[in-house]
Design goal:
Helices cover about 45% and strands about 20% of the residues. The chain is built from twelve helices and twelve strands. Helix 1 (about 10-20) packs across helix 7.
């Protein structure tokens, strides 16, 4: 297959590109400038000049491919509404380009869109409240358009922690805050849990979803169902040579800013159905070991 990948030069996208190329696919990677285009070429793909905020360029990429993996997203948590609007416009443009073809469009979302406090499965209903509720509109749009226009719309919900070398996400943010504060914070007893997945395992999942995914399905990029916050913060503290300590939510907000609310919540998440349906079997190192061995101080 010739696969159009948005976010092809990103942290997850680079792994997805290598996974696809290693399994005989061709990659058409979205590039918004020459530096990105050169990165796509060096990876073995073909650059497609365009921009996430240019729907026409996305439609052209989708039309030129046998399938699409949409990974690009504007990670602006201070104005989260705008990135979700851009995301829906991108999905709409690529959906229209694939209308009537039966081709797959796989999009990335997150498990934080599900209710906290109870074990979430692939069939759990997304939340209608909280900071990440706006992003649930993207898979809703995807399903509506796939049903009415004739392509395969597939959602992959990623763990909030996708880890590996070169990670710039959740764990490095916590590390940066810890260095600034002089300690690593967990809320109350630190019993709340977060799911995690290694970047290379996530890449395999996107490949399998592209080839085998069922229209309208949601799959979970979760290798570890729930890592206790206290255990995670303790490992980060050990890595940095800083103490990990219990704080109140108010104190966590002072230390972590807008991430404190998310850090205080519990998101146990299953991928049992995903693994059984797609034959996905995560095999990479777990989060805590990855931090200990591969994350820089």
């Amino acid at each position: 297959m010739r696969v159009f990948v948005t976010g092809a030069v990103g942290f997850i996208g680079r792994a997805v590109v290598q996974e696809l190329l290693g399994n005989g696919h061709q990659v058409l990677g979205l590039a918004r400038n020459e530096a990105s285009a050169e990165s796509v070429r060096k990876a073995g793909g073909e650059p497609h000049m365009g921009d996430l905020e240019d729907p026409d360029s996305l439609a052209r990429g989708a039309k030129a491919a046998d399938g699409v993996i949409h990974l690009a997203f504007i990670h602006d948590f201070k104005d989260f509404a705008r990135p979700t609007v851009v995301d829906r416009a991108a999905i709409q443009a690529m959906s229209k380009a694939l209308a009537g073809t039966g081709k797959p469009l796989v999009i990335a979302t997150g498990t934080l869109s599900l209710e906290d406090g109870t074990l979430a499965t692939e069939h759990s209903t997304p939340t209608s409240k909280g900071p990440f509720a706006l992003r649930t509109q993207s898979p809703k749009l995807l399903r509506e358009m796939s049903k009415t226009t004739g392509f395969r719309g597939i959602e992959v919900r990623l763990s909030p922690t996708v880890h590996d070398k070169e990670d710039w996400g959740f764990v490095p943010i916590l590390m940066g805050a810890a260095r600034k504060n002089g300690f690593v914070a967990y809320v109350d007893e630190g019993r709340n849990v977060w799911p995690a997945v290694h970047r290379l395992d996530a890449a395999v999942l996107f490949h399998l979803a592209l080839e085998k995914g069922v229209d309208g399905a949601s799959y979970h990029g979760v290798a570890e169902q729930g890592i206790a916050s206290k255990g995670l913060m303790t490992v980060i503290g050990k890595k940095l040579g800083l103490p990990a300590k219990s704080v109140s939510l108010e104190e966590a907000t002072a230390a972590l800013g807008h991430f404190a609310q998310a850090v205080s919540m519990s998101y146990p998440t299953s991928s049992e159905w995903t693994q059984s349906q797609l034959g996905w079997h995560p095999s990479q190192v777990g989060l805590l070991e990855d931090i200990e061995k591969n994350y820089s101080t």
